[in-house]
Amino acid sequence: MYQNTNLTLQMFLEEISGIADKEYQLRVWIQGKGPECDDFDEAVCRYSNAANCIFEEYVECWISDVQMDLVTKFHEEYKKFWEENDLPQLFIDTLEWTKITLMAKEVLRVFNNQAKHVKNKVE
Description:
79% of the residues lie in helices and 0% in strands. By secondary structure, it is mainly alpha-helical. The model is unreliable at 116-123 (pLDDT under 50).
C-alpha cells in the first residue's frame, strides 16, 4: 500500500506540474512539438483521475489538512475553468489561465519537500 500511495501522490503532482508549466503548454498543446504527445483535454482527464485518487486516499498519502485545503481550492478553480474552456489557443494568455498556473505552482510549493520524499521512495 505504501508504494501505491506514493505513486498516487507522485502522479497527482506530475499532473499539477504540467498545469503549472506554461512553456510546456505552449510547446506541446499549441505548437504540437514533442517529444510529448498531449493536449488540454488529455491533461484534464489525467488530472481528474489523479485528483479523484487523491481525494479518496489523501490520508494514506500523508497529505496534511493545510495541503488538502489548498488542493481543494485549486481543484474547484481548475474544474470551473475547464468546464468553460477547451481551446488553449484561446485561453493560454488570459488572466484566468495565469491564475490557474499560479495556483498550480503554489500547490507544488506546498508539496515541495513531500514531493522529493515521494520521488525518492518510489525510485
